[in-house]
């Protein structure tokens, strides 16, 4: 191979993969500029994604892969796109749809739903929030950020622009919600550098803050040169000290701590990207945003498609969304998707459409799957969907707002927090850091206690005649036990009960001799199950 | 002393579990081995015993004034209006609002030369409870979570770490949790002593809950799930059965203070802090390893800057004096004091200078105090010294890392044991600090 630098080699291999058949590499003599042109050609067709996957897996051809039934497809797609299970009405409508293209039409409909943006704003916000060390004396509120993010996502803003807005934001959260990321990390350059790389490039560089990374390529110098781009931000605070925004302050020099002499600092560093380009600018963060958005950036597109793949395909392309290795588990597939994403102008809906249209997505579960735990906001959505209740407490029973210090060292007291909603309480219990690997997302005792004993939730399982609950209504309206069982399974789990499950229930009902109690037990058992809390 | 018995005491992670300690203790003592094995057996027994020790942290939220508690400076212009009283230790005087602790000073060791640490609440709370200065890259775990992580017992009904009462404010930065160790090691919150923690009380009769659990199990058995979901199902059923044990078992009765006699409840004082101390005693009896009891009355707590600070201090002191003395007495009478380290402290002390006639003092960390009793500590002593006005430490400075390492020593933990952050960064329980040996001499 001719002597090519980092970018040239990357451009070349991408061109090869995109145009010469997946998984087939041969020597090319094309120049890098031709490679760059080829990148912007029309994206490969969908059939190629399945072929890429088949080749990477060394698997049977895609046409032979068993596909899930319609109800399962509806359940999966609704969970993945909107973060909830499908309603009974949606289930009936989809099953009644006889068109051959009904699955593609469903995906299109879901992608246009405003809940799409809200769901994925929750995902990205969780990714950010679980790594924010609680800033001092501030009631953390991600509401404005989530609202802004969902709006941009639904409006079809390219991913480069959304990330660009987050990375370059200035001002206060109230006017510029995107600045939440900078403000809650307290404008610390090392934290911002590490988080920007982790979230948007899928690279864990944090170790390199103190020493050359032990098993990855990053040197300490590289880390701090990147951190220099985030230096010099002035934190804006509310009265009382709570971080509320940032402003760039030009002319500030960044010096990394001197390893040899604790307490002292080394020479001033010029901001530069992890691939070596200079990021010097009036506000170096604009240079960071530009570097992220370059098609030649080796990691930006790969990181994003990996996020979506991991949440939708039951097993990631690598170990974790925050440490995307250059050797993917499915190398041609990963490259294919990244290329397509770049070529489409970082079009988010196109990425989802490509994945959800594949036969691999609709494949019946295999041993290769690692089902994901539903996130905190998703658990609330499936609870309220299954029980047809917002689990709200009547005002008289609302817990008083948490205590705030009256003597705040002479400063005015911080803003009182908004009382916790039922959704917040569920998120507290069930939320987790989405960057964790599946084996790290284990259920907790507090979660089990909540589902088992939480007073407001238990009210929804009561079915005495006249109760305002869904179950009471169902039992009053429907005399056929089997129909009620099916309805409950459809509502709670988005599937039909198996014959064995129906039998177990029938035995339970006969043993109890009480229809109401038997169904109360059933609904309780459906909610108090692993399947209820799992994306499947 | 045979290898089989040794294995029974230590679990897969090398930690001695509480249950196994209680089972194995008798066996070790009875083995009657001699010579080298005897010495080894004694060392093992000591380690096992340490691993069964508990810590109760009496947390004075807001930063208690050393002048108004255990280190009054008689005769100094910094003394303030609080008078001093003599104690059961000749030559040692403490502030007048602590008459009951005065009779128990022979059991208390005062660490009179604490020094260092931030002087704003958030950073100081972070520092004193985790042993690390605030770092936006790492959510350091609070020490109680570290203990829970080391002591986690898959069989025990009660979690290893319980936090009783409420701090002055509910900011996460003022209530450090398990941080990078993960939510599993967060404290169980008992915000109102006398009430059960949230979601523990059954909402249906016992037989209904048992019936539902059995029925859910039968359904799960026939679900015919693929292997991947089966693994999640097993994990869920595991925590479900532990949760069920809490709800249906007897250990949860620990939270029911009405099982204590009225005279006992009265002895601890009719205050949230006092009843919290009583709850703490009940929890150590059931093997809970680390318990925090918050003293933060009102939203001012011990942060007495101005206003009628001396009156506030009197009121707060009385609450803590009653509860703390009752706790130490009760632990002693029940033979638990030797195995329970009781720690009294806040996030810093208060300034020598006081504001106006109200007697308010501001934050001060150049010279402050903490106090310990039980856990094998020799009481009746005052470690270190400050000058006559309490402005700076003149002898034997003690730092927060020293405290952390000393707690590890008492509890049988290795302070240099490491956990790992999300980005694979190893962190020691305590980087620095030395055991305060004078406490045990």
In short:
The complex is a heterodimer of chains A (536) and B (441). Chain A folds into four domains: 1-38, no CATH class; 42-100 and 298-370, no CATH class; 115-293, no CATH class; 376-391 and 421-533, no CATH class.
Q: Can you offer a commentary on this structure?
A:
The complex is a heterodimer of chains A (536) and B (441). Chain A has four domains: 1-38, no CATH class; 42-100 and 298-370, no CATH class; 115-293, no CATH class; 376-391 and 421-533, no CATH class. In chain A, 48% of the residues lie in helices and 4% in strands. Chain A is built from 24 helices and five strands. Chain A has helices at 6-19, 32-39, 47-57, 70-82, 88-96, 102-112, 114-129, 143-154, 159-168, 180-184, 189-201, 220-227, 284-293, 300-312, 331-343, 348-356, 376-387, 422-430, 445-453, 455-459, 470-477, 481-493, 499-512, 515-527; strands spanning 171-172, 233-237, 243-248, 254-257, 265-269. In chain A, helix 7 packs across helix 8 and helix 17 (376-387) runs antiparallel to helix 22. The longest helix of chain A is centred in the N-terminal third of the chain and has 16 residues, at 114-129. With 441 residues, chain B is an alpha/beta fold. Chain B has two domains: 53-194 and 272-439, Alkaline Phosphatase, subunit A; 198-255, no CATH class. Helix content of chain B is 36%, strand content 16%. Chain B is built from twelve helices and 16 strands. Chain B has helices at residues 3-9, 18-30, 35-51, 99-102, 121-130, 143-151, 206-222, 227-248, 262-268, 272-285, 309-333, 400-411; strands at 54-60, 84-86, 93-95, 108-114, 161-164, 188-190, 290-295, 340-345, 349-355, 360-364, 368-374, 381-383, 385-386, 393-395, 418-420, 426-428. The chains are: A mainly alpha (536), B alpha/beta (441). Chains A and B meet through helix 11, helix 19, helix 23 and helix 24 of A and helix 5, helix 7 and helix 8 of B.
